[in-house]
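retry 2 of 3: previous attempt timed out while embedding heme C. Reduced batch size to 1 and resubmitted. Inputs unchanged:
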Amino acid sequence: MRKALRIVGLLVGLVVLAGAGFAVFVSARGIPSYTSPKPAVAAIEATPTRIELGEKLTLAACGDCHLNRETNKYSGHLLQDLTPDFGKVYSANITQDRAHGIGAWTDQELVGLLRTGIGRDGRYRVIMPSFALMSDEDVASIVAFLRSGSPQVQADATPSHSQEPSFLLKALTNTVMKPTPLPAAPVLAPAPTEAVAYGRYLVVGRYKCYECHSKDFKSNNPLEPEKSDGYLGGGNRLLNMQGQTVVSRNITGDADTGIGDWSEAQFGQALRFGTTPHGPLNYPMPKYSRLDDAEIHALFAYLQSVPKLKNVTPEDGAVAAK
Ligand code: HEC
Ligand code: HEC
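retry 2 succeeded.
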């Protein structure tokens, strides 16, 4: 008995020691750095078509995090809707300022960051999402827009704020949260006329609806999104600007708890104007005011085609537990 107790004591001691060692390691190491990625991209040609598409995509995919709504410039700010468990994280200045923005970054460095989440200095930009499945053409369009003459991206001398990650965020980046690898082959988007395939691309690659609309950010699968827990069934607990919980909704084709009973016209209204049969849609659901008809049609066709999940979300009467 004594001996058994001593062994248990020894084991507990070892676990505590290992835990303490890990804590010291994580605190000292902080957010890890990696070798900066070198994707095989030449300088990106800024055609008018790319700049126009890039403006729309940047607003939809980067705007909520990087756009300063007062100055209407992409100069960055505190992410107020990030869970306080992660500490304080600030998006960066991505205007053309050479010292404080991305004026000194090459196209290759920008594409490398967008694909993997790793910056030109090797530092992992952890809360910045990686756009692993976005098409090469969409990525090029975003870069073309960031380099354009638009007033939103002209040099702004606001310095990017340094990060104040919590111990939890540091621990996660030293264990499970990792950069995504560079794509091994060219990434092409299906033609808009192939509605279901194009709709999938919009959901997983271009707008990444699945990230918010599956069960939890922590169980999302960035390279094989369909393997994310509760794919598109809603229930992810997000925060609004006041720090209150807003639960994402089930957007599979289930007629009772999803959007199986919606018409395509209702769906288009919800995405472009934020109005639904259940009332207005609140932040952080983005307003996709510039989606074109082919995108609405494809998104709707694809969402009706994915496996239907039964998952009651607040608009169906579920109460958001604290
Ligand atoms: C969920 C919020 C979020 C979204 C969406 C987002 N970013 Fe970021 N981004 C961040 C944060 C936070 C950082 C700073 C991270 C750090 O310093 O660790 C960042 C950093 C960057 C940087 C690095 C700048 C520097 O000086 O280090 C670039 C470039 C960038 N983002 C571009 C974009 C583009 C382009 C998009 C859209 C395609 C985008 N981001 C979407 C949050 C976001
Ligand atoms: C940043 C997170 C986020 C992203 C990205 C996002 N959504 Fe949402 N969405 C939400 C939240 C949160 C709600 C619920 C808002 C509320 O409660 O007012 C919502 C609501 C909806 C609804 C209303 C469903 C209902 O039953 O009332 C639809 C439809 C929808 N989103 C579709 C989409 C599509 C399609 C995309 C991609 C093009 C998308 N969302 C991207 C967070 C997001």
